[in-house]
Specification:
By secondary structure, the chain is of the alpha/beta class. Helices cover 35% and strands 20% of the residues.
């Protein structure tokens, strides 16, 4: 008869448990939802965000991400949050350490939405911050999310963001799937070319390659006026600018606000010019999820306050220059969308 001492039993128990612990450790370090995977995913997202936002208006490096890097922006990439919480906006009175509001903006449009380091700046960013403030959120409760043009409806429908403020023109097609408050600015589509290039008027574009971004309506509208164009699409406008600067394309087209922002960057100043005037009326709205009537009404109220208290003009002059350069008489907008 063998006498089992407590010490012996404990040693055997450790031997039985050890393989299980080892197996569990291996599982946690493999694919699936282990900590190692989450860390790797966060690192990858950070790298992709960096590749999509290498643009600076104040001495930063020129955007040089290649096409494969830029295609990664098909999925919206989050910025560094300014709040301790990453939870979506919830009901109840927000506090300084409470819920955040997630807002979709651009990270590569100087003067409108540009991220340098951990800071997002521009007219759209200022408008978004003002509106969020009227909704009850302090600046450090706002989390700006990078949203490529063709993903704007998707991030709203999925609830990834509460609103999108990203040179987002109000159109019937978009209003069929989302709602839009505003407009908060009236812009117009134009064309950017090289100053020393062969193109001086819109008619000179026939047979040339013109760049715009996926999800934008700009190329189609230009092609209706100037037939015989060849389209070149990227995920970001910064990629179009790089291609225009190195001669890979002849022109790029989008709103005059965006084009002026790039033309005024220090590394490009004097190299580009706008031609053709404006060929459309682009009413910038704030996108929200379909059916969110309450938020739509609150945003429109905030936009009216922004104009009335002088903040609108201050934001325009700070980021874009004299408001008279942009469709004089049409700005600031007076007639806002009806919230349904």
């Amino acid at each position: 008869m063998t006498v089992r001492t407590p010490k012996l039993e404990r040693m055997k128990a450790v031997k039985r448990i050890a393989p299980i612990v080892a197996a569990t450790t291996l599982i946690g370090c493999s694919g699936g939802s282990g900590v190692g995977t989450q860390t790797s995913r966060a690192q990858n997202e950070s790298m992709l965000t960096s590749a999509a936002s290498k643009s600076s208006d104040d001495g930063g490096s020129s955007p040089r991400a290649n096409a494969s890097e830029l295609s990664a922006t098909d999925s919206p990439m989050p910025s560094a949050s300014t709040s301790a919480s990453s939870n979506p906006v919830s009901s109840g009175e927000p506090t300084m350490t409470g819920p955040t509001i997630k807002i979709g903006v651009k990270f590569d449009q100087p003067g409108l939405g540009l991220k340098v380091g951990s800071t997002a700046t521009g007219f759209d960013v200022d408008v978004a911050t003002y509106v969020a403030g009227k909704l009850g959120y302090a600046p450090n409760q706002i989390e700006f999310i990078q949203v490529p043009s063709r993903q704007r409806e998707n991030v709203l429908q999925s609830g990834m963001v509460k609103m999108v403020v990203a040179t987002y023109s109000i159109t019937d097609k978009r209003l069929s799937v989302i709602d839009m408050a505003g407009p908060y600015f009236n812009a117009g589509q134009s064309v950017l070319v090289r100053t020393n290039g062969p193109i001086s008027t819109a008619s000179d574009l026939v047979g040339h390659t013109v760049c715009s971004v996926r999800g934008s309506t700009a190329f189609g509208k230009l092609a209706q006026r100037v037939p015989g164009l060849t389209a070149k699409e990227f995920d970001t406008y910064s990629a179009c600018v790089v291609a225009l600067a190195d001669g890979s394309i002849s022109a790029m087209t989008t709103d005059d606000t965006i084009l002026r922002g790039y033309a005024n960057q220090s590394q490009y100043r004097g190299n580009f010019k706008l031609i053709g005037g404006t060929i459309t009326n682009e009413r910038y709205g704030i996108g929200i999820k379909k059916g969110d009537v309450e938020t739509c009404r609150k945003i429109n109220g905030a936009l009216r306050s922004m104009v009335a208290d002088g903040s609108w003009e201050r934001f325009v002059r700070k980021n874009l220059g004299d408001p008279a350069l942009f469709k004089a008489g049409a700005n600031p907008p007076v007639d806002l969308e009806t919230c349904h």
